[in-house]
Structure formats: C-alpha cells, structure tokens
C-alpha cells in the first residue's frame, strides 16, 4: 500500500486479497497506547465529530482498488453519514470513494452499526475493525463486508496476526442495499458473536480465531477492477453509488443498553 500523507491507519478486511497477494498493509496511523480502549459511544451522525472520526483522503490501498479515498465523498445528508463512490479523476484513479475511521482504538465490547449498502457489482460496503503493523501491533481485524455481486448476504471474517480464512456468508433478508439493517458483533476474550438484525449468525469460541488487540473502527465504500471473482465484475452505473450509515456504537465490556435498539438490551 502507498504511504499515508496524513500518518493515519487505513485498514482493509479482505481475505481474498490476502490469499492472492499476501497482506496489503494499511496506511500509517496516529500513535497511541495499544492497550488503551476508547470509551463507549453512540453516534447518530448529526455531524462528523472530528474528535472521533478521521476521514481518509488522498491515497488508495493498492492496485486492487480502483478509486482514491477522498474527503469529498464523505458527508452528512438527511441525518445520515454518506459514503460515495463516483466517477471523478482523483489522484491515480478515475474514481473517488469514501472512508472514515476512528481516531481511537477500542477493545472488548459490543460494536454496532445500522446502515444501507451501496448497489453495484465490483463494490464493497464495509463495517470493520482493524489494527496492524503500522501501529506496531499484529494485523487483527473483524469484518462485515457486503459485496456488490450479491447484496443478499454479508461476509463475516476475522484476522488474527494476519491469518484469515474464517469467512462465513450470512443472509440479509431483502438485500443489504434495499433498506437499513443492523449489524453487530460482541467481542470477548474467549468468544466472538456476529449478529444481523438481532439474529445470531456466527459464534466463534476457538481462542486461536479471536483477535486480542484493540482496534480502530472503519466504514468504507470502494471498488475493484481486478477482484471480480470475489466482488463481481465492476460496471459503473453512470450515477454515484452511496453507502448510508444511520448509527455507529461501541459499548464497552460490562456496560449495556446505551440506546434502546442495542443488541445489549436484548441478550445476556
């Protein structure tokens, strides 16, 4: 990956890429104690809180990515965070795309988001956590990725010290791009649970398959011309594609029910 001009981390949850060409190292990040975890929060995106979020801008993550991260493609509209993919010559690419990441790292707890994914083959709408070598930590990651070739399912995965291969596809009734859905994972030292619309869709109990390092939270929308087998053959529709995020939340271990719809209000 290219070096970040802003010295922030850029993460990527792509098992297919890792298998094809090794690990694509994300961009450099602001330094902070890896053992510290940010406090619980709920963000309904009435604005972009720059104390919480950093907007990726001015680079791409490598030849697999056909767009350049651009702050112009990150905005608040209609009370939601909007990430767009548009045809616009930006940097080394003919397309521009949007991504945000937290400025802090977060540890064990519950991670939740309510969003609608973009439409289009060759696009990836992602909600994930990541930390890696540029932060002097192993590559750990937990993913929800909706691939444009089939918006009726979401790919779950996690990396532990750069080792992935834990993919599972979970159905999203009605299509992830046709309406808003709730995605959540509960990360504990000895258990990792994934939920879609309040339903448990994956439970991991093998400690060797559960990340241990505090990570940053990411939302991203990007495209590819090369990973068509995984994401679908890219075809630009002629109109911007948009990922809409209504809410993001982190509930630290030991806390619960920060907002009424939280999965922590409904389970033990």
UniProtKB/TrEMBL annotation:
Domain GH16: 18-256
Any one GO molecular-function label of the UniProt entry: hydrolase activity, hydrolyzing O-glycosyl compounds
InterPro entries: Beta-glucanase-like, Beta_glucanase, ConA-like_dom_sf, GH16_AS, Glycosyl_Hydrlase_16
Gene3D superfamilies: 2.60.120.200
Annotated TM spans: none
Example GO BP: carbohydrate metabolic process
Keyword Repressor listed: no
Pfam families named in the record: Glyco_hydro_16
Keyword annotations of the record: Glycosidase, Hydrolase, Signal
UniProt KW Membrane keyword: no
Secretion signal span: 1-31
Catalytic residues (positions): 141, 145
Family under the similarity heading: Belongs to the glycosyl hydrolase 16 family.
Protein name: Endo-1,3-1,4-beta-glycanase ExoK
């Amino acid at each position: 990956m290219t070096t970040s001009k802003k010295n922030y981390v850029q993460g990527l949850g792509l098992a297919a890429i890792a298998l094809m060409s090794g690990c694509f190292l994300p961009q450099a990040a602001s330094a902070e104690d890896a053992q510290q975890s940010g406090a619980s929060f709920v963000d309904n995106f009435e604005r972009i809180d720059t104390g919480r979020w950093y907007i990726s801008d001015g680079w791409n993550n490598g030849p697999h990515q056909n767009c350049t991260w651009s702050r112009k493609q990150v905005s608040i509209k209609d009370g939601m965070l909007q990430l767009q993919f548009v045809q616009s010559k930006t940097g080394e690419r003919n397309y521009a795309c949007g991504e945000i990441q937290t400025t802090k790292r977060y540890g064990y707890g519950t991670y939740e988001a309510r969003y609608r994914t973009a439409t289009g083959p060759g696009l990836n709408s992602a909600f994930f956590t990541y930390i890696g070598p540029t932060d002097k930590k192993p590559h750990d990651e937990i993913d929800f990725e909706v691939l444009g070739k089939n918006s009726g399912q979401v790919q779950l995965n996690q990396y532990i010290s750069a080792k992935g291969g834990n993919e599972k596809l979970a159905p999203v009734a009605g299509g992830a791009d046709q309406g808003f859905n709730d995605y959540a994972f509960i990360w504990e030292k000895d258990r990792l649970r994934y939920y879609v619309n309040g339903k448990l869709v994956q439970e991991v109990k093998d400690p060797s398959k559960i990340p241990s390092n505090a990570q940053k939270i990411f939302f991203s929308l990007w495209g590819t011309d090369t990973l068509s087998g995984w994401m679908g053959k890219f075809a630009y529709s002629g109109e911007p594609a948009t990922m809409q995020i209504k809410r993001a939340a982190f509930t630290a271990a030991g806390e619960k029910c920060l907002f009424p719809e939280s999965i922590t209000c409904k389970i033990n």
